[in-house]
Amino acid sequence: MCGIIGYVGPRPAAQLLLDGLKRMEYRGYDSAGIAVVNGTGVTIEKAAGKLSQLEELVQGRLPKGTLGIGHTRWATHGAPTSTNAHPHTDLLGRIALIHNGIIENAGAIRTLLEKRGHTFRSETDTEVLAHLVGSLYQGDLEEAVAAALREVDGAYGIAVVSADEPDVLVAARKGSPLIVGVGDGEWFVASDASALLEHTRSVIYLDDGEMVVLNRQGYRVRDLQVRRITKAVNQIEWDLETIERGGYEHFMLKEIFEQPESLANTLRGHLLDEEGTARVTGINLSDDELAGFDRVVITACGTSWHSGLIGEYMLEELARMPVEVEYASEFRYRNPVVDAATLVIGISQSGETADTLAALREAKQRGARTLGLVNVVGSTIAREVQGGTYLHAGPEVGVASTKAFTSQVAALALITLRLARRRSMSILQGRQFIQALRALPDQIQRILDKADEVRQLATLFEGKRNALYLGRGVNFPVALEGALKLKEISYIHAEGYPAAEMKHGPIALIDESMPVVVIAPRDAVHAKIVSNIEEVRARGGRVIAITSDGDGEIARLAEATFTIPETLDLLTPILSVIPLQLFSYYVAVARGCNVDQPRNLAKSVTVE
Ligand code: F6R
Fold it and tell me: Could you tell which of 303, 374, 599, 601 is best to mutate to test the pocket of ligand 1, judged by most ligand atoms within 8 Å of the CB?
């Protein structure tokens, strides 16, 4: 995720900004830049790649000045190039701005400004915002920033400086974290406390819709109507390492808890409520072209392959489109039947997985149309496919994939919605689907609020060496994902099975020592899975069930249950997987495993 740092005080700003950015490196980024203001103007330096590249660029010629802003960018609009890196400037190059988040109406503002003669150098929404502030500037940066922010939709944390006001730094937030550091005669802003800690522990937490103006005398907090707000100064108690993980013990847990936000970011800007459909313009296909394919092939590895299986259920059920889901490693060495009438969708968090990349290349070479659902902007898969959509889940640091999975399923739901509306779904069904999608972030939060219950359930796994995960319908891939999560971080052997398939073999494994996790929300196959639970119980198996709120029937049968809110059947995986992620996390922690870096695994598998 992007990082923001800003400084006003007596010390040279440039080195201080670079050091602050270094503290935020752990968040993941792909380019960096700084802007320093002095009496003569604003000097900007930026570079693609690691911070060391920016440091090399400015070595021996650090811009002079004691006020400035710095940014590490994790690309969301446009590739990670130095042109797209922040800071961005306004039309006259007098105002410099850095930004975290996504400005949803940037396209419309850009068009408006272009009509007024503005030209843009980058592909970013941030440059549009810088131009907007510049176009409203009449000698007061605070007023211009407030006026610009009143016109934008979306999420932001920003910091802005102007060559015409060399003593002023303005910052604001909505939906993206920003804190003010109060030092001794010097002031800071940062998106992350880790960037401030070596200078001060006194901070002000800005809330959404608030703006801070820093100058050499101090700071003032305002709302977007420039009305005064009084804020308390807090003391940070955490150490650096804890802060980098946002106070969580592990990145994996942090990323599990980020899902209300990461999922909202995946959906942001794509849903057309009135028309009951999804936009997903990045796929570069008209509705007719999209509906014109004979079939869809989804290819991916690991967790991403599991989300692909869920996509198969959604696309076939709602869009009536034939789908096959292939392990990328198998697809690339078969002689796959794909041609121009096949849409091949590659799913990859990293966008660098060698097997998925090779499978997509093979498909493209055979004339198929390729799409990518990718989290890392500018990654190889994102660059090579003919269209697609970014997940916007934010960087995933924990090796076990969690938030990328729910975002992948959400992205598949968006494509399904668009295709289904063109082929078979009514506008009313489309609206109902959108309503259900919009409810998911809050529903995930309700599950996370009960994380302690999952921690209790995890004790049932003490001393266990094997486990079975069962699900039916669209929750069968969730059973696979739950089993994968458990084995990769806790090293307990776990198998995922379609619940009804159990009687064809795995039932032989069931005895009193075998925990069986059953994903059994109240859906179309509920009665069937109740019978499967009875089969396990009859053999002495210990059932831990994931059920819907208020499901007394399963509660009576299972040894332990965890309930999730109700949603449309096809969207339940986005909810039912959350307790399973938490469950594997707590089991692994109890076993003393290295959760964020499990043995033998790599975050990005760039070899065959
Ligand atoms: C499991 C996991 C892996 C990845 C797989 C594909 O937690 O992280 O199974 O899902 O290696 O990686 P991407 O999605 O980056 O292509």
Answer: 303
* Ligand 1 atom having least distance to the Cα of 350: 15
Among protein residues, the one with the nearest Cα to ligand 1's atom 4 is 302
Query: Could you list the residue range(s) of the whole structural domain that residue 152 is in?
Result: 2-236
C-alpha distances (whole Å) from 60 to each of 14, 16, 63, 322, 437 are: 12, 15, 9, 61, 52
Contacts of 473 (CB under 8 A, 6+ apart): 313, 523, 524, 525, 569
The span from the CA of 207 to the CA of 306, in Å, is 37
Q: Where are the alpha helices (DSSP H) in 44-140?
A: 51-58, 106-115, 125-136
CATH number assigned to the domain comprising residue 403? 3.40.50.10490
DSSP string for residues in 138-152: SS-HHHHHHHHHTT-
Highest mean pLDDT among 229-238, 422-431, 596-605: 422-431
Q: Residue 466 and residue 337: Cα distance in Å, rounded?
A: 38
What is the distance between the alpha carbons of residues 44 and 222, in angstroms, rounded to a whole number? 27
* Domains contained in the chain, number: 3
First to last CA, the chain: 28
Characterize 148-179 residue by residue with b for buried, 16 or more Cβ atoms within 10 angstroms of its Cβ, and e for exposed: bbeebebbbbbbbbbbbbbebbbbbbbbbbbb
582 CB-contact burial (10 Å; exposed 0-12 / middle 13-18 / buried 19+): buried
Give the lowest-confidence range in 47-51, 190-194, 327-331: 190-194
485, 522: one domain: yes
pTM for the whole structure: 0.77
